[in-house]
Design a protein that fits this description.
The structure is a single chain. This protein is mainly alpha-helical and 105 residues long. It has a domain of 60 residues. It has 4 helices and 2 strands, in the order ααααββ. The protein has a two-stranded antiparallel sheet. Strand 1 and strand 2 form a beta hairpin.
């Protein structure tokens, strides 16, 4: 697990919230990993300590970036007009030589 490699295989009993915060800052954020990767790793470490060592780490003290909210693409009035005026019912037919002809129905 990358957390223990970062901690240089420290004794799990001595791991604290400060170590988790340092790992987050010096490893995950420094390498510019995504917010979802950061959440997965921190939750995995938290769950490991909770199940394996019966130790509760509190990742809520760690600043975690939120997923970026992507705005939807918005078409201009001119683009909408082009779409609405574009022909929508194409018919295709092959001739003997394999050439395809298109016409509007």
């Amino acid at each position: 697990m990358i957390f223990f490699r970062f901690m240089e295989n420290s004794d799990p009993g001595s791991i604290s919230n400060e170590d988790l915060e340092r790992f987050n800052r010096d490893y995950i954020i420094a390498r510019k990993y995504s917010a979802s990767f950061q959440g997965q790793v921190i939750n995995a470490v938290k769950l490991f300590f909770q199940i394996r060592w019966n130790k509760k780490l509190d990742p809520e003290i760690i600043h975690r970036p939120k997923q970026p909210k992507i705005l939807p693409n918005v078409l201009s009035l001119e683009e909408v007009k082009k779409i609405l005026l574009a022909p929508t019912n194409f018919k295709a037919q092959d001739d003997v030589n394999g050439t395809v002809f298109l016409w509007f129905a």
